Amino acid sequence: MSFDFTFVLRIVGTAVIAYLLGSFNFAVITTRKNEKDIRTMGSGNAGFTNVLRSVGAGPAVLTFVFDFLKGALAVGIGWWIFSGVSAADGVTLSEYTTYGRYLAGLFAIIGHMFPLYFGFKGGKGVVTTAAMMAVVDWRVFLMIIATFLIIFFATKIISLGSCACAALYGVYTCIATYFFDYLPRLGQSEGFRFRYVILSTICATVIGLLVIVKHKDNIGRLFRGEEKRITPKKKKASES
Fold first, then answer.
1. At what angle do helices 216-224 and 158-176 cross, to 10 degrees?
2. Is 14 within 8 Å of 103 (Cβ atoms)?
3. Tens digits of per-residue pLDDT, 115-167?
4. Burial letters 40-74, b for 16+ CB under 10 A, else e
5. In the chain, where are the structural domains located?
6. Ramachandran angles phi, psi of 229, nearest 5°
7. What distances in angstroms separate CA 50 from CA 22, 75, 106, 110, 212, one per listed residue?
8. What backbone phi and psi angles, to 5 degrees, belong to 91?
9. How confident is the model at residue 91 (pLDDT cuts 50, 70, 90)?
10. What is the DSSP letter of 232?
11. CB-side neighbour CA atoms (13 Å) of 153
C-alpha cells in the first residue's frame, strides 16, 4: 500500500483523542471532596479497588461505570475514524477498523494510567482495559471475565485476577482470532489474513504487559503474602 497521509492523520487523531479521553480519571473526579485526593488515600492508586476500600461503594460504582464508558467510547471513536479507510491490498475494512479500535484502546489506557489532567499519576487501567476488550472482541471478553471470576471467587484478591487476565489477554486473543476469524476464511479471496492474528495478538499482549507493569507493587505483595483480600465487612455486635 502506497503512503497515505490521511491514513497517518487517522492514526495520530485516534491516538490523541483516545489519550485525552482516557485522561479523565474518574477515581480522582468522583472522590475529590474537601480537597481530598484518592491518590493520598489507601494504596494511593487512582482506581476502582482503592476507591471501594478507602471511600465506599457509591463512589466506587461511579468510578467503575465512567472508567468503563470512557474506554468503550474511545474504542468506538477509533472504529469510526478508521471506518473511512478504503480496503486495499487484501486488507478488509473490518480488519482496518479492528486496528483502529486497538489503537484507541491502547491510548485510552495510557491516558488512564498517565492522565494529562492529573499530573500524569493515574490508575492501573483494569476497568478501561475491560471496556476495550468488550468492544473490540466480545469472545475474548467473555473468556477474560470467566477467568477473573474463577480466580476472584477462589482467592478474593482482585489484583491476582487482574494480573492473570492481563497475562492471558494475548493468549485468548490469539485463540479467538485464529480459530474463529482466520481458519474459517482460509483460502477465500477475502477475509482475515494470518497477519491479522499476529497483529491482534501483539496489541493485546502489549496492553496486558502495561497492566501487569502497573501492578508491580501488588505483585510484590502477592509474593510476600501481604495482598489484601476483598471480604464482607463484619457488622458490629449490638450492645446489650
1. 120
2. yes
3. 999 999 999 999 999 999 999 999 999 999 999 999 999 999 999 999 999 99
4. ebebebbbbbbbbbbbeeebbebbbebbbebbbbb
5. 5-224
6. -105, 150
7. 19, 25, 23, 19, 17
8. -90, 120
9. confident
10. P
11. 6
pLDDT of residue 34: 55
Cell of 42: 489507601
Asked whether 147 and 161 are in contact (CB, 8 A), the reply is: yes
Whether the CB-CB separation of 76 and 53 falls below 8 Å is answered with: no
Nearest-Å Rg of the Cα atoms of the chain is: 20
91 forms bridges with which residues in the sheet?
A: 88
Query: Does the pTM exceed 0.70?
Result: yes
The three grid cell numbers given for residue 20, joined into one nine-digit string = 485525552
DSSP string over 79-142: HHHHTTSPPBTTB-HHHHHHHHHHHHHHHHHHHHHS-GGGTT-----HHHHHHHHHHH-HHHHH
pLDDT in the model for residue 92: 82
